[in-house]
């Protein structure tokens, strides 16, 4: 595989979040050990944090356009690692919120069920029993004779 194909493969793996910044630095060092002129030197403009997926997409477009210097790839790895970590944090928070909502709904349902059972039990205690009717009926019969 020639250098440009290796760089393109590395760039797309970085964008996908496959490699951390530390991994990328090791890979770059390995490439440079094999071939000192593996990367072209070129200055890049870096946006300050916070970075987002839109900025990562901009870097992806620049990579497709052919920017593949060592500095660019390292910056791309920094941005990708940051953006993917922020995405994991956001998803984790969303899961936490969903769990809280589910727990609240479950608590409300359980409370309603307990209230219904208590009301039914109270109503059952106030209602006359069948044996009460039997006593009334038998006394009514004995008085009429």
Whole-number average pLDDT? Answer: 83
DSSP, total strands: 0
Radius of gyration: 36 Å
Fraction in helix: over 70%
Distance between the termini: 114 Å
Task: Provide structural commentary.
The chain has five helices and no strands. The chain has 145 residues and is an all-alpha fold. It has two domains: 3-93, no CATH class; 96-144. Helix 2 packs antiparallel against helix 4 and helix 3 (53-64) runs antiparallel to helix 4.
What does this entry show, briefly?
This protein is mostly helical. The chain has helices at residues 3-15, 21-34, 53-64, 70-126, 130-144.
Would you spell out the secondary-structure blueprint of this structure?
Blueprint: H1 3-15, H2 21-34, H3 53-64, H4 70-126, H5 130-144
Helix pairs in contact: 1-3, 2-4, 3-4
């Amino acid at each position: 595989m020639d250098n440009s194909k290796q760089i393109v493969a590395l760039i797309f793996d970085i964008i996908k979040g496959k490699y951390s910044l530390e991994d990328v630095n090791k890979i770059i060092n390995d490439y440079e050990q094999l071939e000192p002129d593996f990367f072209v030197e070129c200055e890049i403009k870096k946006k300050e944090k916070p970075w987002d997926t839109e900025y990562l997409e901009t870097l992806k477009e620049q990579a497709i356009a052919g920017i593949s210097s060592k500095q660019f790839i390292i910056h791309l790895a920094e941005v990708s690692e940051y953006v993917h970590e922020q995405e994991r944090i956001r998803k984790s928070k969303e899961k936490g919120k969903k769990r809280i909502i589910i727990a609240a709904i479950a608590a409300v349902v359980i409370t309603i069920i307990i209230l219904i059972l208590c009301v039914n039990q109270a109503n059952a205690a106030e209602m006359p029993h069948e044996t009460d009717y039997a006593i009334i009926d038998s006394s009514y019969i004995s008085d009429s004779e």
